[in-house]
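Problem 12. The chain below contains 355 residues. Write out its predicted structure in token notation.
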Amino acid sequence: MNIQWTHVELHGPVFYSISMVVPASKHHKGSQKGEGKPASAGSADVPGAADTAPSAGAPSSFDMQAMFDRFSHAFDVRLGSLETNRSRDVGLLSASLDGAITKMADRMDAHELHSKTHFDVIDAQIQALEARMAAAPVGSPPSSSSQPMVRPGSSLAVLSKPADDCIVFVRGFPVLLPSFAMKEYITEALSVVPSVERNRVRTRSSAADDQFSLVFPSCALADNFIDAYRAGGFVFMDPADETKAETPLNVSKSRPLAQRRRGKAIHPIYAQLELIIDAMPTLRSASICQRQAPRGGTWFTEFFAQSGRNLAPLFSLRFREDPTETVITGVIIPTAGSALSDDNLKLIREAAGLQ
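Solution.
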């Protein structure tokens, strides 16, 4: 038996195949059953019979080459398919990331533009305010003859108390805020005040409050602040609220002292009038309306009962403004008569402290 080595090189490692070939010999023994029997006719005597018989040995180098060629082709096809799928997936991921980044950039640009516009409006208001203050002529100090006469004991109280039209309130907070949280909104409000006047503005807020006030050195500065604050559109937003809902804040001046005193004097009369109307079948569904107006230098407050579009006159209160308080001096019956009875008007007079 001879051993043959076949050298096969397929674009990589070198492979070797071993083939075993049995040499032909006339002394080779046959099988036990066929030993000594003559060969059948047409078998061994036919020329080329051994060449056409299939080989029972190992595959030839050409078969191995063809097998490896098929394997290499299948591997190349599979690898190309994987590369194509990977390129497609990477392309889809890249397009998705590009879209997300573009959308985020657009939102950031829009937010930046909105903030810039907001601060441009505030800056324009501040510049206009500074220009008006710079252009205003400096007035000469008033002479002693034009000064109002003040009693010696009350001079300090008058000078330390700010004027009503110099006090500005910022309201509209839906919850009570501690002082450190309210300070953030106070600082935000002061940003619309010119820097040269900012240190002259006094702030007021309680340890826990739903409003704060600013005391300005002049009425004109308070008016300019109100205009700038309203133009800025300041809002309250609770950081703990997931919806990020915004609550607009309101700004207004303090009511004059005389008006506050009249309101305090009216409280007991208003409470008595509510009891009277609730007991009257004809006015039970009506609401109470008021109108304040001066007549000949004296302030009056008129009361009406409103039912739909109709106003039924009830009575009027006459006031006297004293230096320290406001006093009700009379309950006036309308010329056309009142919707209240004499007994009801008597209860109103008693509530006003009149006989």
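Discussion. Helices lie at 49-52, 61-135, 155-160, 179-190, 195-198, 219-232, 257-278, 342-351. Students who got a different answer should revisit the alignment rule from Section 12.3.
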